[in-house]
Specification:
single chain, mainly alpha
């Protein structure tokens, strides 16, 4: 079977112990897929694995709202971020929810015929643009923590996947075939349609804070806070000037994708770490072997690369999250 990983060789999941093993066990039960590459690739930096899983679980899987709706939001995010691996995965998972016609209509590039479905998909797409007006929501206000958490989880996951995995969801791009998509979805249907208990991933985290106001009172908040802490710790792989460059670049970003010629990006020979972080944030699918090789030193392990990519990815997440126009109601 082709190896789906680029630039790193994660530890064999079967060799996992301790917290990492616990995370993979919970993923198998609640996601329905044992050792998915999406999370295996993070196991080179275990401190990122637990919170990344926790945020996805507590928002997409256990959060309030229909799974179909949240899959549509995640699909919109993945399309906006140009992440074909994740877009294909969400199409398969729509088969798992039982929405076979919707899944196939979207797989062919169509727009949902159901107006509410179309609004959720469009909402997911629009979350890529910092400061975009996201209200009125295309879902009930009380479901906002789960939908916002889902969108932000996949803004992070899309970027990690685009940087460190190939685009093929299944060997030989078998997900191109309708029968394969349907069969893959049906294989996890029982898990996807089961009601998950909120908060089960929180014991896998190390004393997270409550998280942002928009997630107050839900398990999404601590999960988001934990991922933020773990991902931003990757700043120690950048010097002070690089950190300033990444921050200023992200605050000037308007959500657009860079042109074919990467003008204005850090030079790989002069500032390889900054280049990787900025690419991870804005266009992770543009990271090349040359970019990684220019940065690599004997002290840079696979775990270091995952941490640097995660740092850049979350810099984009934070740029999006801190500019969200989110109405917060306090009790």
């Amino acid at each position: 079977m082709p190896i789906p990983f680029r630039h790193t060789r994660p530890p064999a999941p079967k060799s996992a112990t301790g917290r990492t093993s616990e995370v993979f066990e919970q993923i198998a039960v609640d996601f329905g897929i044992e050792r998915p590459p999406t999370f295996v690739v993070l196991s080179s930096a275990p401190e990122l694995l637990s919170p990344a899983w926790a945020l996805m679980r507590e928002s997409l899987i256990a959060g309030a709202g229909s799974r179909t709706g949240k899959e549509l939001a995640a699909l919109g995010v993945s399309l906006a971020n140009k992440c074909p691996f994740c877009a294909d995965a969400h199409t398969v998972l729509l088969h798992a929810t039982g929405d076979h016609a919707l899944a196939e209509h979207l797989a062919r590039g169509g727009t949902p015929e159901n107006v509410e479905h179309a609004r959720v998909l469009d909402w997911g797409r629009r979350t890529r643009v910092p400061g975009a007006t996201l209200t009125p929501y295309p879902f009930p206000r009380e479901q906002a923590p789960a939908y916002l958490g889902t969108a932000l989880a996949f803004h992070f996951i899309n970027r990690v996947v685009s940087a460190l995995l190939t685009e093929q969801l299944l060997p030989g791009n078998a997900q191109r075939f309708r029968a394969v998509r349907s069969l893959a979805g049906r294989s996890v249907a029982r898990t996807v349609r089961r009601t998950a208990v909120p908060g089960a991933a929180l014991p896998l985290l190390d004393a997270p804070g409550p998280g942002p106001d928009w997630a107050a009172g839900t398990a999404v908040g601590p999960a988001y806070d934990a991922l933020r802490t773990a991902a931003l710790a990757g700043a120690d792989l950048l010097d002070a000037d690089d950190r300033t460059l990444v921050r200023e670049t992200l605050w000037a970003w308007d959500g657009s994708h860079p042109p074919v010629v990467l003008r204005g990006f850090p030079n790989r020979r002069e500032r390889p770490a900054a280049r990787l972080a900025v690419l991870a944030a804005l266009a992770p699918y543009r990271i090349t072997e040359e970019d990684v090789d220019a940065w690599r030193e004997p002290r840079h392990t696979d775990g270091s690369l995952v941490r640097l990519i995660a740092h850049g990815a979350f810099a984009a997440v934070e740029r999006i999250e801190t500019t969200m126009r989110v109405p917060v109601t306090h009790p």
